[in-house]
Amino acid sequence: MHIEIDEISKQFGTTAALHPVSLSLPSGALVALLGPSGSGKTTLLRILGGLEFPSSGRVLLDGQDATGLTVQERRAGFVFQSYALFRHMTVFDNIAYGLNARPRASRPPKAEIARRVTRLLELIQLPDIGARYPGQLSGGQRQRVALARALAIEPRMLLLDEPFGALDAKIRKELRQGLRDIHDTTGLTTIFVTHDQEEAMGLADLVVVMSMGRIEQIGKPQDIRSRPATPFVREFITA
Amino acid sequence: MSDTSLARKPARFRPATEESPAARRALIGVAFLGLGILAFAPLIAVFAEALADGIAASLRSLASPDARAAIRLTLTIAAISVPLNAIFGIAAAWFITKFDFRGKAFLITLIDLPFSVSPVVAGLCIMLMFGTNGLAGGWLATMGYPIVFAIPGIILATLFVTFPFVARELIPVMIEQGRSEEEAALTLGASGWRIFRTVTLPNIRWALLYGVLLCSARAMGEFGAVAVVSGKIRGQTATMPITIEMLYQEYLPVAAFSLAAVLALLALVTLLLKTVLEIRHADQLAATLRR
Predict the structure, then answer these.
(1) R_g (Cα) of chain A, nearest Å
(2) Nearest Cβ partner for B287 among A49, A135, A153
(3) Structure confidence by residue, pLDDT tens digits, A150-193
(4) Residue B189 to residue A51, Cβ atoms within 8 A
(5) Distance CA B241, CA B244 (A)
(6) Which chain A positions have a beta carbon within 8 Å of B288's beta carbon?
(7) In chain B, where does DSSP find H-type helix?
(8) How far is A49 from chain B (nearest CA, A)?
(9) pTM
(10) Of B120, B104, B105, B212, which Cα lies nearest the Cα of B161?
(11) CB pair distance less than 8 Å for B202 and A88
């Protein structure tokens, strides 16, 4: 889905988390929002997902104004920083949650839900963990379960908040490829937030560099590397 | 780094963070001693006094109409006020932990008010509000709904005194758990009520159970506030603690201690219930704890 961000700003009390920013993301792109903490990248992601309302500006999804849509209507698959898996439910029930939460009329029958969960567990390459609880999984497994849970609702876009933040270096590399594969298989417009420039450059088609609630530069990784637009970008990507 | 510190081995293995065996024994001993003097000995004394004239005399005193009315009244009061305070407590904890708003700290202080205000003062406040000369009481009494010296007043007093228990248990747990699971459920399309039922409530159920048990124990045992508003009408508004006090003042130790033993048993049953539930659901309990 094509995502258009039109002069979005966000105030928290007297502090501006986002100055008016505009951004156009092509359908099917894998986008990184890159910046140090406090740069407004997570706020922007949460506004896209409908978890925050912008103070001003509009969000257009496929050309339609989605600014006033509730989180539920937004249908954005969201992967949270610490994954936010439901710890009292099995992996299976976690992934099935979004399908079970649908109104009765559009809820798939039980067998269909089971079939879809099984397929998602295969997609994340953890076919045998359906009966386990999140507390019994490793960090990398939890991240993939969170991804599967977000994909189960057949989202219109995929939003990930620091998806690799809580993992060690070796697993990061593996899961990076995993996210790339899932993006390529599903063709979903995917946006992830990171403070790690190497991760952004290595994984994304399009990188949005942010600082202090402003967008510093938008471009392909190689363009940002070869032609940094501002001194901040130059310093941040060589750090 | 010196090699000598590595070479010097302790005489016996013990975890570095643990106290010496002597210190451990002393601490455990103090804990048992304190519990023994403050909790077990009085409890045993209550039962011993209750059975001083034999079990038959004890049971006979419990079968008297006044004692039976007191037991019935106390259980009724608890059955009404505990569910109400569970709902108030959940609502307050939910509101405080899931939303940001001005005056949050003030609201938390307000929840603690019943802990810091003497129950007698609380009872007097209810008298002022709902007594026959009170702000609302006169009118309600003429309408045929007397509040003080009647069951509604006792319920109000109990609600006030036991209000903090559930909220106090829930707030730290809900703060620790944060909002991210609820947010995740939102993004998955769940409605507010569904999120509460399937995510929030299961995550807080143990804290809720604990709060409810403490709340019921206190609701059954409350004396001060209830003593002011109840009017101590025997067989009508005298709860178990009030009846116990009256019997004791009338030099009827067997009757007083028999009723006291029943009250203590009720509290022990709630504790037992909690322990049984914890053992039975140990695996779920372990799974829901945050790592």
Answers:
(1) 18
(2) A135
(3) 999 999 999 999 999 878 888 888 889 989 999 999 999 999 99
(4) no
(5) 5
(6) 87-88, 135
(7) 3-7, 21-35, 41-50, 55-63, 65-98, 104-116, 119-130, 137-142, 151-177, 180-187, 192-195, 201-221, 224-230, 240-249, 253-280, 282-288
(8) 7
(9) 0.80
(10) B120
(11) yes
